[in-house]
Model the fold of this input.
Amino acid sequence: MTEVISHPYFMTERKIVNNQQFTQETAHKVNLHQNFIESTENYIALESVLDISYRALSIHYYFLYLHTDKGVLAFQSKINPAPFVAVFREIKASGYS
Done:
């Protein structure tokens, strides 16, 4: 099934090597389809997603929250997720068709 919209997010990994701390960011995408949402680590049916929200941490960083029946998933992003949230709400209101 083709994706309707995707939104980039990043994951931060910190490592200590020889008593020095290194930080590595890896880029990923959360993809919204007509019936499900998928990310690098998760596959969630839209029936299980209760809501999506986001919060700006600063001008440059956002958290995208997926509220599911199994808990909340958080994604860190450098791009405003408002368009992703709007498309999700349209699909949810239309009954996932």
